[in-house]
Design goal:
Length: 257
């Protein structure tokens, strides 16, 4: 009798660790984030950014339009602040020079965490590597790259404080980065070259919202979770079957007594 009752207990003990592992695996899998880019400095720029993180490996896709055609546009993940963007150009232009500068916007989106260059280094050290940022062809950029991010950047995504910022505006409509106001980051550059043009907080993406590349990565993670969950449910079903068998066995023993 004790042996018959012990069988379900063993099965239950085997099943529940599997379900515990399922929760841990879901947390550690690939996660997707999306930023809807809104204009800063009355730039008229709009677009979307998608990021998938698998550990510290990031795949980044950016589509943006309304940019200064034929010119490079610096772009970054900013971290370490409120995880938001400037919302009022007039109110945020503290020094009244006609621009919401990087320094003035930093209270919202923080410092550079990753430089979204086309080649080479992606650290904050490349924040002004103008020759390695995408050039807007016809006023648009289409960017995709996979690289490693730092632990601080990964943590900012998890905390909801990562922000995507695209820089470079043509405030005077001249068709080039120029003007008398110089950049707060590099006095040798005009402010137009470094002022934020578009900004969007990177929020966890809804299922199915990612472009094809991101969706495939996300689907792989989700599919793995579903399969593991199914295994856990199957194990519980086996527990039920084992329990039913034990009860039937006991009844047969009683009938024979």
């Amino acid at each position: 009798m004790r042996k018959a009752l012990a069988l379900p207990a063993v099965a239950v003990a085997a099943a529940f660790p599997l379900l515990t592992m399922t929760a841990a695996s879901a947390h550690e899998g690939t996660h997707s984030y999306q930023a809807d880019l809104g204009a800063v400095n009355q730039s008229g720029v709009s677009g979307t950014g998608m990021v998938t993180l698998d550990g510290n490996t990031a795949t980044v896709m950016i589509e943006a339009s309304g940019l200064l055609a034929g010119s490079p546009h610096a772009q970054h993940f900013h971290i370490g602040a409120m995880g938001t963007c400037p919302t009022n150009d007039l109110a945020d232009d503290a020094d009244g020079d006609g621009f919401v500068s990087v320094t003035e916007a930093a209270k919202y989106y923080g410092a550079i965490g990753t430089s979204l260059t086309t080649t080479g280094d992606t650290s904050p050290d490349s924040g002004l590597a103008i020759d390695r940022f995408p050039t807007a062809e016809g006023g648009s950029i289409s960017y995709e790259r996979t690289f490693e991010v730092s632990d601080d950047v990964h943590a900012a995504f998890e905390a909801g404080t990562a922000v995507l910022v695209v820089h470079g505006i043509d405030k005077d409509g001249s068709g080039a980065y120029d003007g008398d106001v110089m950049s707060d980051l590099d006095p040798s550059l005009p402010m137009e070259a470094t002022a934020p043009a578009a900004c969007g907080a990177l929020d966890a993406a809804q299922m199915g919202a990612a472009p094809a590349g991101g969706a495939e990565t996300g689907a792989g993670s989700t599919a793995g979770t579903e399969n593991t969950t199914a295994m856990g449910v199957g194990a519980l079903a086996a527990v039920g079957a084992a329990a039913a068998g034990a009860v039937a066995y006991r009844r047969r023993q009683a009938d024979q007594a």
